[in-house]
# Entry
Amino acid sequence: MKLVSRAEWGAAAPTGSYTRITSTRGVKIHYEGSAVPGALAADHGRCAGHVRDIQASHMANASEGWIDIAYSFVVCPHGSVFEGRGLGRKNGANGNSALNTGHYAVCAMVGTSGITSPTDAMLDGLVDAIEYCQASGGAGGEVRGHRDGYATDCPGDDLYGWIQRGAPRPVGSGTGPAPAPPSGPVSGAPPFPGRILRLTEPLMHGGDVRTVQARLIERTWSVGPDGADGWYGEHTRTTVTAFQRDSAANGWPLADDGEVGPLTWAALWDRPVTR
Ligand SMILES: [Zn+2]
Ligand SMILES: [Zn+2]
# Structure
């Protein structure tokens, strides 16, 4: 687990004392539910600052009266686990005092714009945080979403679906064997379109973009609420980046630049399905 302590991310001191807890029934998963800057996905150096921003916004929320960041932990797109209130302390995120006592609160840096779906590294980090709560914080085995028992969309449909599938680690992470890339030119890919598909201003649009989006969807990756609309927007770039990282983690090296060049194009068709 890549744990980032409060000191390491530069947490402000709490403005009151924590309520101690010794056990919980498990963990509840959250998302930010607001814009999460897409730039975070490409630059882990920004993640600590983003956690400081979350903490500052929580501590400035007069109606909630939070003494600190509300979450127990926050997980970034790169899989680091930032210590929020941490273990043995009641969180402030689950909706009310009973819910906050019942489960730890782990938040993913996923929002309603910018970064809108979890990366595989993030899912790995969430499992790291859950296991840490269980092994060292007295958490039981339940993994739930914020919306379980409280009226909210949190943690969003992608993360909630993952919870309902049992909150698994992504295939290919950890110690499992990584499939080897095939040898030789055995390509089932349609011809590369001849232009590199990427996020541009104004946005790229076309049948080639739609082809990539449809292929991502076919391989169970979300490209956003509009589906294969032919526009290479932020969501498509984020998903392509996630696909590239997932490929690299599964023995199919790709740069995670969020652009579809010949190598990523080929991998979209030829890489064995692992999720
Ligand atoms: Zn929540
Ligand atoms: Zn990060």
